[in-house]
Amino acid sequence: MRTPLENRPLIALSLAGLPSQARAHLVETGLGPVYDGIAHFAMTPEDLIPVFALAVFAGLRGRDHARRVIFMLPLAWLLAGLLGAAARISQPESLSWVPLLVLGGLVAADVRLPAAATTAIAAAVGLFLGLANGDAMAQAGSGVRGVVGIVGAVFVVTILGAACTVAWQSGWLRIAWRVAGSWIAAVGLLLLGWSLR
Amino acid sequence: MIGVRRIARTVAAALLVLLGGLPAARAHETRPAYLELKETASGRFSVIWRTPVLAGMRLPVALKLPDGVRNVEEPRVQELPDSLLERRSVDAGPAGLAGQRIEFPGLQLTITDVLVRIERLDGTRSTELVRPSRPFLEVVAPRGTLATINVFLAQGIEHILLGVDHLLFVLGLLAIVRTPWMLVKTITAFTVAHSITLAIATLGYASVPAPPLNVAIALSILFLGPEIVRAWRGETSFTIRHPWVVAFAFGLLHGFGFASGLAALGLPQNEIPLALLAFNVGVEVGQLAFVALILLLVRALKVLQVHWPRPVALLPAYAVGSLGAFWTIQRLVLMVEGG
To answer: Do residues B119 and B192 both lie within one domain?
Structure first.
């Protein structure tokens, strides 16, 4: 028989899984839904930081990984975003910080994965975050055009992040990227803990 | 080779089909509405309320003055080719409009703004931009020149970011130039040219009617499509050898386009130089940001050694050409129909 203490992780995970009102940093730029989508992405750390972390992770693994991620991530994001906007699927708020923790951890540990695994991670991140974005854009009335704006911004950040990492990773720079990853993981852990309190 | 051509033709046809579903795209479809309140006696204001008209449809924005304000003179509406102009006189009482709220019902449903200019008896002026996200204005004490600069700087940036045709022309130029020095020359030529005509038109020395101007701007984009394809095939032409000349020539046209965005505001003559400067700087800031982003992306794709299949590599050229052709036909039809 499990003691209450042993059940604590299970309880925490169950609580994390409880759906709550999707948190949305809805931004109205006055420039239309596409720009609203771009601004939404830029102002939402739980979207922006994981994308950057994934780009860095792919860049650290080399050009082949980076090339796969820069196309897979926006594609998955677009599909999930359209689905989220149409079906209005909201996600538990606390789960939104998990990608920071996971991707920051991958960067910090400089984990060596096969290219297919990196691509799968990109697809999973795109589907997970895109679904929440689609719902947020539908809430804001920006709909599909808002999702298109977000996906465009995701594409740009991923390409620039991956290219910077590929170009600058010799010597201490690689360590600097890994330190950045550890900070991202720490932020993710902190915010996940905060959201579960 | 035949397969590639077939794919390219299919993509171009698909683009055209997609474009058929797009609304009428113009450089100036986001012209702001304009409200001018000029204090003629203590608490009395002459009101000019101008709302843009697009293809016969008035912008669905209303003007709601504070409750205590009453009409001294009933509104007189004048129909202009591109807008509706409403004039009247109102009395806001001895306290004037300070601290009161002017509302714009319906603005939240649009993507345009309302430019509000208030001129008081003591000669102080203030200019504010009311956005759809906050469709009202709390009238406060004048904020001076800096606030006016901020407003027109924002308008300039907004105008270029929403002016898809201007951005597409710049993208076409970027696709043609081959060396960094040529890029600097070309972008500088475009900037100088559109600054010249923007100033000339805004200061009232020359004007071009909007319908043929919009057609000519669309033609400038269409013109670049085949040139991009030619450049990527390794062929040459006058445009490819001297893109800055083309940038300068068509830049003059685009400057008239920018000017119509500013002149449509109907600003008083004494505020135009400042507004013109701030607006032009805003346009340049937006344009340079766009150029920087494109160059960064191109550089990043080179670092990642992304090799596009040939039909995909030609997509930007076909996108520029197809959109140019689409807008040319669309605007030509609108011009012939008198829209």
So the answer is: no
Same domain, B100 and B243: no
Q: What is the distance, to the nearest Å, from the Cα of residue B323 to the centroid of all Cα atoms in its chain?
A: 17
pLDDT exceeds cutoff 80 at B24: no
In this structure, are B263 and B190 located in the same domain?
Answer: yes
Domain boundary among B80, B115, B144: B144
Torsion sign (Cα): B189, B192, B195, B196: negative
Nearest CB partner across the interface for A159, out of B161, B301, B305: B301
Neighboring chain B residues of A143 at a CB cutoff of 8 Å: none
Count: domains in chain B = 2
Ranked by mean pLDDT, the top range of A110-114, B97-101, B271-275 is: A110-114
Asked whether residue B157 is assigned to any structural domain, the reply reads no
For β-strands B114-119 and B33-41, DSSP reports them as parallel
Residue A141 DSSP code: T
Residues in A closer than 8 angstroms to B300, CB to CB, are 159-160, 162-164
- Report the distance separating Cα B275 and Cα B261, nearest Å: 12
The answer to whether residues B134 and B171 belong to one domain is: no
- Same domain membership, residue B232 and residue B119: no
Domain ranges within chain A, ordered by starting residue: 26-195
Tokens, residue B43: 């608490």
Asked if residue B127 and residue B181 are part of one domain, the reply reads: no
Domain containing B72 equals 33-144
By C-alpha distance, which of B9, B313, B30 is closest to B166? B30
Strand partners, B91: B44, B70
Q: Which of B113, B293, B300 sits opposite A163 (nearest CB)?
A: B300
Same domain, B207 and B332: yes
- Whether B151 is covered by a domain: the verdict is no
Q: Is the CB of A70 less than 8 angstroms away from the CB of B304?
A: yes
CA distance A114 to A104: 18
The residues near B303 (Cβ < 8 Å, ≥ 6 apart) are A163, A166, A167
Alpha helices for A62-142 (secondary structure H): 63-87, 98-109, 115-140
Q: Are residues B171 and B319 in the same domain?
A: yes
Answer whether B133 touches A (CB < 8 Å). Answer: yes
Q: Which single residue is written with the structure tokens 């008239």? A: B256
CB-CB under 8 Å, B132 with A163: no
Lowest-confidence pick of A5-19, A166-180, B136-150, B175-189: A5-19
| Strand runs labelled E in B26-92 | 33-41, 44-54, 57-58, 70-79, 83-91
Of B161, B184, B175, the closest CA to residue B286 belongs to B161
ipTM of the complex: 0.80
Residue B153 belongs to some domain of the structure: no
pTM score > 0.80 for this model?
no
